[in-house]
Amino acid sequence: MSNNSTKIISTADGSNTLYNKEFDQCYHSTKEGALNESLSKHIIPALNYHKDKKELNILDICFGLGYNTIATIYYIVKNNLNIKLNIYSPEFDKDLLISLQNFKYPKEFDNFKNIIDTLSKELFYKDEKISISIYNGDAREYIKKLDVKFDIVYQDAFSSDVNRSLWTQEYFYDISLLLKNDAIITTYSIATPIRLSMYNNGISIYEYKPENSNRITIGLNRKDIYKNKDYKYIDMELKQQRNKTAKALKD
Prior knowledge:
Elements: E1 7-10, E2 16-20, E3 25-26, H1 34-49, E4 55-61, H2 67-78, E5 84-91, H3 94-99, H4 113-122, E6 124-126, E7 130-136, H5 139-145, E8 150-155, H6 169-176, E9 179-187, H7 192-199, E10 204-208, E11 216-220, E12 231-233, H8 236-242
Parallel strand pairs: 4-5, 4-8, 5-7, 8-9
Antiparallel strand pairs: 1-2, 2-3, 6-7, 9-11, 10-11, 10-12
Helix pairs in contact: 1-2, 6-7
């Protein structure tokens, strides 16, 4: 395992995560379960939103243990969906990436062990339906270099308390340049400053309560109000009027 991520933690759904010493956080919620959290907070909302698309470009911030990427593949295969995947993901911790071939993933990922092993060694995987590219380095630098428009962004970095640079208004400006007109951003954070960081870059804010996890924020790159009974539209202008001290995070 990485020098920063040495302690294996079993989570509520039986899947494992790691504790990261540098950021003093686990990669997943131990109470909600690592696999359940990926599916409930990211994969299912994003894929349901784009249920009619046959090809998806996904930006997975950050790769970490790879749950969001592999769970996306798992969900598509399990539900026999005809979707081509192009996944791009930055990850700063090279030792962590190398160690993934030895990590004990949930049984749901057994059929994708070859993908995990290839990514661990090559940082790249490709077959006729799936393309995955991992960038080992700084995520802020990476997103400035990308020449891809994304349907989905999994905004799943360590929290802003310890990893501020991946939650600021300036960061989301760079993200906004990469979004297709109908793109969706999924994130576990429901903090007003982070929602403002997104909103100030033209991203509409919604709240969603998955069946098996806590509330999340959904960011949509669309100007009209998205009508979905499960999505609560958050009027950020009204939020700012009611809370004069509310401010976006800045670099």
